């Protein structure tokens, strides 16, 4: 096994996870059409992705817009809990991690991952949180002056028995919420908000998921300022279809080329 020819589960010499020459950081080779467009610079912001409701399947897309070195996208481990399964040999314990990510400026994500080790669970939850990053719509309580500071209207979310309701609040109120939900609301970029909770909110996992589901509905409400006629444009996949087909043809030729 020590001669470099072992039976490890690596991708081989030409795999997708190969390291770049300038350091230990792995080079990102996108596997989705969206990833290829983002890496090539054809899509310049996350809002373009959200506008066409394109699913994000690679966490590197988020890292492209929020480089980890910039530190703009903050992450927080909300809870780590052991979960058990009864097996013939006894109990099998694994760890479940809840991780929230946000830029405190209108984007929030939540990831849940279960693994044998705590570090693996946190790492997996962070990746899932980045892929579930959503835009948060903010609005006003009364006079529409200054920057939006609260939720645009009453929002509700439910997970398990926990039901959470977010209510717009006047400027200067702050976040009237439990410590866990306050963290998520602050990471989403909300400054003032009332909240009301029903059910067994001690179940932290369901509680923070209910808050996340409530925030995610902020763009689902069609208020009068959004009543303008919609002008439909081409999706990025249609707009850059020539590039994607050319790139796919090049990849196919590379795959078919003989290796000596």
Describe the structure using short key phrases.
alpha+beta, 8 helices, 4-stranded mixed sheet, single chain, 4-stranded antiparallel sheet, 260 residues, 8 strands
Overview of this protein structure:
This protein is of the alpha+beta class and 260 residues long. It is built from eight helices and eight strands. It has helices spanning 33-40, 46-51, 59-65, 118-131, 179-187, 204-216, 236-239, 241-256, and strands at residues 74-87, 90-102, 107-115, 134-135, 155-159, 162-167, 175-176, 193-198. The strands form two sheets. Strands 1-2-3-4 form a four-stranded antiparallel sheet, sandwiched between helices. Strand 7, helix 5 and strand 8 form a beta-alpha-beta unit. It is flat. The mean pLDDT is 88.
- Please give the order of strands in the largest beta sheet: 1-2-3-4
Tally of alpha and pi helices = 8
Low-confidence segments: none
Determine the strand fraction and express it as a percent band: 15-25%
Largest sheet: 4 strands, antiparallel
Apparent shape = flat
Concise account of the structure shown:
It contains 8 helices and 8 strands.
Question: Topology, pairings included?
Answer:
Blueprint (H helix, E strand, L loop, with lengths): L32 H8 L5 H6 L7 H7 L8 E14 L2 E13 L4 E9 L2 H14 L2 E2 L19 E5 L2 E6 L7 E2 L2 H9 L5 E6 L5 H13 L19 H4 L1 H16 L4
Parallel strand pairs: 7-8
Antiparallel strand pairs: 1-2, 2-3, 3-4, 5-6, 6-8
């Amino acid at each position: 096994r020590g001669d470099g020819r072992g039976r490890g589960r690596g991708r081989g010499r030409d795999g997708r996870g190969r390291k770049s020459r300038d350091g230990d950081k792995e080079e990102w080779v996108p596997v989705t059409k969206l990833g290829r467009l983002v890496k090539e610079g054809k899509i310049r912001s996350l809002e373009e992705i959200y506008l066409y409701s394109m699913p994000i399947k690679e966490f590197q897309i988020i890292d492209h817009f929020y480089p980890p070195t910039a530190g703009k996208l903050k992450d927080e481990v909300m809870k780590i809990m052991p979960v058990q399964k009864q097996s013939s040999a006894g109990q099998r314990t694994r760890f479940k991690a809840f991780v929230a990510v946000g830029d405190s400026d209108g984007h929030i994500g939540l990831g849940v991952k279960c693994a044998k080790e705590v570090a693996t669970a946190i790492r997996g939850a962070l990746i899932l949180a980045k892929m579930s990053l959503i835009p948060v719509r903010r609005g006003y309580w009364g006079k529409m002056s200054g920057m939006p500071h609260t939720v645009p209207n009453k929002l509700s979310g439910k997970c398990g028995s926990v039901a959470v309701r977010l209510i717009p609040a006047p400027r200067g109120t702050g976040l009237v919420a439990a410590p866990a939900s306050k963290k998520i609301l602050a990471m989403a970029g909300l400054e003032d908000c009332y909240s009301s909770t029903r059910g067994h909110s001690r179940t932290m996992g369901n509680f923070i998921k209910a808050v996340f589901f409530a925030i995610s509905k902020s763009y689902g409400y069609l208020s009068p300022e959004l009543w303008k006629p919609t002008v439909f444009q081409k999706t990025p996949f249609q707009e850059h279809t020539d590039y994607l087909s050319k790139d796919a043809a090049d990849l196919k030729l590379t795959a078919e080329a003989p290796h000596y």
